[in-house]
Amino acid sequence: MARIYPFRALRYDTSRVKMEDVVTQPYDKITPAMQERYYEASPYNLIRVILGKQFPTDTDDENCYTRAAETLRQWRKDHILREEAEPALYGYSQTYTVPHTNEVRERRGFIALGHLYDYADKVVYRHEQTFPKHKSDRMSLFKATRAYCEQIYMLYSDPAFTAEKLIFDSGAPADLAITDEYGVVHKVWKLTDPTLINLLVTAMADKKLIIADGHHRYETSVAYAKERSAQLKLPLNQPRDEEEKLGSGHLPVPPFPEAAMMMTFVNMEAPGITILPTHRVVYDIPEFSSPDFLTKASAFFDIKELDSPDVSILEKTPGVAFVAATGDGNYLLSAKKEVIAKELANVPARQAQLDVVQLHSIVLERILGLTSDSITKLGNIRYIREADEAVGLVASGEADIAFLIKPITLDQLKDVSLSMDVMPQKSTDFYPKLLSGLAIYALD
Fold first, then answer.
1. How many CA atoms lie within 13 A of 315 on its CB side?
2. pLDDT, tens only, 369-427
3. What is the pLDDT of residues 166-214, one digit of tens each?
4. Were 184 and a residue from 96, 177, 385, 428 both cysteine, which residue would form a disulfide, CB within 3.0 to 4.6 Å?
5. Higher-confidence residue: 237 or 2?
């Protein structure tokens, strides 16, 4: 069962800070330029905790993780961050314009603690592979700060829209509204009514959860929970007594603090979910040659030369297709279905039909000769949201070739995840991102 819990969040005191100056995008979406901008925005910007600057003089005793812990401690002491007086869940909505369109959407969900499960427990499901380096970094941060400052983005299915009706149908005004640097309006509602909380807890109990964003943080948190479970000699998956007393007004609590982490839960049946493609840029290929690449690719793809690397052509192209941008020209690659089906005969059918799987298995590994190990370690690949940026890296000579791809659909993601398969890393880009700093779950 999926167990969720209310919590007494640490939240910024809005009489002391301007919220737009202290919140950030998720750590893995923060570029060096964004990091610098966040540093300059406010001395209390969360960047100092989730992605602090590193210096050549750093040591085991003085580094970005120890500075993050000290920063968080000082902010709590100075009441820049204040702990809520009572446990709560938080309604959360994001109103945004879909990139490169005029379409406005609203995505609704709620923030709560979610219990941590192994994938083998078949409660939480992943959809893509992860990078070991990222997990090591997050583990160091979690252990130093003893706090979760960012939320995992979790999907679940509820055609009855139970949570949305309980949280949003009252029409109560939000207690916080922020517009981020992308023009996304984020609103938060604090929910403290025990009856409402327990109704949400009960409604979520039978749900399967799919990680949309936050695989690295989730897997790191599970490892941390197991470590603490052994140290404390407390079982990870045994509910505390309070969980058995929901009917008498008690609120559920984790068996120990590290057994749960902060998550935002979004109903995948509701409108407002947007998945963008993540394009691949390849560089440092020994003796890369566009003609040689096209010759090899022609065995698997029909190739059409394009006047420009226009990603919109993919919307009009049925089946699996990519735009390949090279220094010598731009090309539309349309998959030869029978040939690739034979080549990927040992790959589960639900995966073999995915554009991103064919790109990695056929193009990156078979044609360009990249190993899965080098791809996993970020050796030759950059993952970029904007097509223009990807193409620009090739035009400048910094990269050898860029592949513009179609986005994964929500149905494809659900099918692959619940079958316990995984797609290549960075297969999805859910937009917009969850803001970091709206609430913090402190373990101490």
1. 5
2. 887 776 666 578 889 999 999 999 999 999 999 999 999 999 999 999 999 988 888 88
3. 999 988 899 999 999 999 999 999 999 999 999 999 999 999 999 999 9
4. 96
5. 2
Q: What is the DSSP string of 341-403?
A: HHHTTTS-HHHHT-HHHHIIIIIIIIIT---HHHHHTTSSEEEES-HHHHHHHHHTTS-SEEE
Encoded amino acid at 238, one letter: Q
Strands 260-267 and 401-404: unpaired
How far is 405 from 362, CA to CA, in rounded Å?
14
Q: Which two tokens stand for residue 234?
A: 């407390």
253-292 per-residue burial string, b: 16 or more CB within 10 A, e: under 16: bbbbbbbbbbbbbbbbebebbbbbbbbbbbbeeeebeeee
Pairwise CA distance, residues 392 & 313, whole Å: 18
Cβ proximity of 105 and 98 under 8 Å: yes
Please measure the distance between the N-terminal and C-terminal CA atoms of the chain and give it in whole angstroms.
26
Cβ–Cβ < 8 Å for 142, 66: no
CA distances from 172 to 166, 175, 189, 299 (A): 11, 9, 8, 60
Q: Chain-centre distance of CA 349, in angstroms? A: 25
- Between CA 85 and CA 73 the distance in angstroms is 19
pTM: 0.92
| Residue in the structure block whose two tokens are 């279905």 | 337
Query: How does pLDDT run across 94-141, given as a tens digit for each residue?
Result: 999 999 999 999 999 999 999 999 999 999 999 987 777 778 899 999
Encoded tokens for 437: 């700093």
**What is residue 161's three-state secondary structure?**
coil
Give me 51's structure tokens: 């992605």
Strand boundaries in 157-203, DSSP class E: 176-179, 185-191
Task: Count, in order, helices (H) and strands (E) of the chain.
Answer: 15, 21
Say if CB 185 and CB 179 are below 8 A apart: yes
